[in-house]
Amino acid sequence: MERLRLALRLKRWYKSVSCIKHYMSKQQPAPVYLNLFRIRFPVGAVTSIAHRVSGVLLFLALPFFVYLLDLSLRGPDGFAAVIDWFDVRLVRLGSIIIAWSLLHHLFSGVRFLFIDLEAGVQLSQARITAWLVNIAALAATLVYAWCVL
Amino acid sequence: MSGHTVGLKAWLWQRISAVYLALFFVYLLVQFYLYPFTEYSAWHEWIARPLVGTAFAGFILALLVHLWVGLRDIVLDYIHPLGLRLAVMITIAFILIGSGFWSMQVLILAGRAT
């Protein structure tokens, strides 16, 4: 029953997307509003684009994280080297950016999952949660920055 | 899956991996906050536990799936020349697969050493 409901929900979601696609293909070429410098940003768009930016930042940090994991498990010396890495001021500053990326990606990701389940889809609610996500991520990052600096 | 549902699978995989990533990330935060590792032996002992190691390996797999779907969406939106798009996708795949094998090797070696 639960699975059926999920399938129906997915189908409805897909239908709405395909309707838009169909409409756009009939009327005119799809508008491309992706130039970041030319579009105005409502708060939901800020949350959305920040989700992408933070995701890309985390991807770029991934090889460095794997390197740290490797180093930390090579032995006591490697573990100490990882701890020493964190004494470098530049690494601490960089870790603040990573912390923001993680927090924002997590918060906004949870918000997107709820929206997928059709909770908080209403525009007024969606705007409030978008503000909440953006502010909570910044606030938590400030707490982190205050702890490491 | 027929042509009607192109992209639905990727969309679903992204959500499934997202849930696992979020849960495991919060678990890691709580773990590190409650029991910060200050010594190599404790850190190694923890990650060499079969349950932790397996959950960690699952985390890496979910991370790779999630990154691939997400980055592909971004590339498809912003990079239009076909050659460049292909080059970027191949670079991303290379980095993801490399990171995957590397971290799995680290986990397996850590598990074996005990």
Outline of the structure:
Chain A is built from five helices and no strands.
Mean pLDDT of chain A: 84
CATH topology (level 3) name of chain A: 3 helical TM bundles of succinate and fumarate reductases
Describe the main β-sheet of chain B briefly: none
User: Any idea how many domains of chain A?
Assistant: 1
CATH class of chain B: Mainly Alpha
At CATH's second level, what is the architecture of chain B?
Up-down Bundle
Strand content of chain A: under 5%
The CATH class designation of chain A is Mainly Alpha
List the helices and strands and how they pair.
The complex is a heterodimer of chains A (149) and B (114).
Chain A (H helix, E strand, L loop, with lengths): L1 H26 L15 H30 L3 H10 L3 H28 L6 H26 L1
Helix pairs in contact in A: 2-3, 2-4, 2-5, 4-5
Chain B lengths: L7 H27 L5 H9 L1 H29 L3 H31 L2
Structure explained in plain terms:
With 149 residues, chain A is mainly α. Helices cover 81% and strands 0% of the residues of chain A. In chain A, α2 (43-72) packs across α4 (89-116), α2 runs parallel beside α5 (123-148) and α4 (89-116) packs antiparallel against α5 (123-148). Chain B has 114 residues and is mainly alpha-helical. Chain B has a single domain (4-112), classed as 3 helical TM bundles of succinate and fumarate reductases, CATH 1.20.1300. Chain B has 4 helices and no strands. Chain B has helices at 8-34, 40-48, 50-78, 82-112. In chain B, α1 (8-34) packs across α3 and α3 packs antiparallel against α4. The longest helix of chain B is centred in the C-terminal third of the chain and has 31 residues, at 82-112. Chain B is elongated and about 50 Å long. The model of chain B has no long low-confidence stretch (mean pLDDT 91). Chains A and B meet through α1, α2, α3 and α4 of A and α1, α2, α3 and α4 of B.
